[in-house]
Amino acid sequence: MENKTTNIYQKLFEVKKAGIKLQRDTKAFNYKYATLSQIQEKLWEVLQQQQLLVKHFIKSWEVFTRIIDIKTEKFVESGIELTPWTKAQDKGSEITYYRRYNLLSLLDLEVEDDDWKKAQDSVKEDDNKQWFNDEN
Question: Model-level pTM greater than 0.90?
Answer without folding.
Answer: no
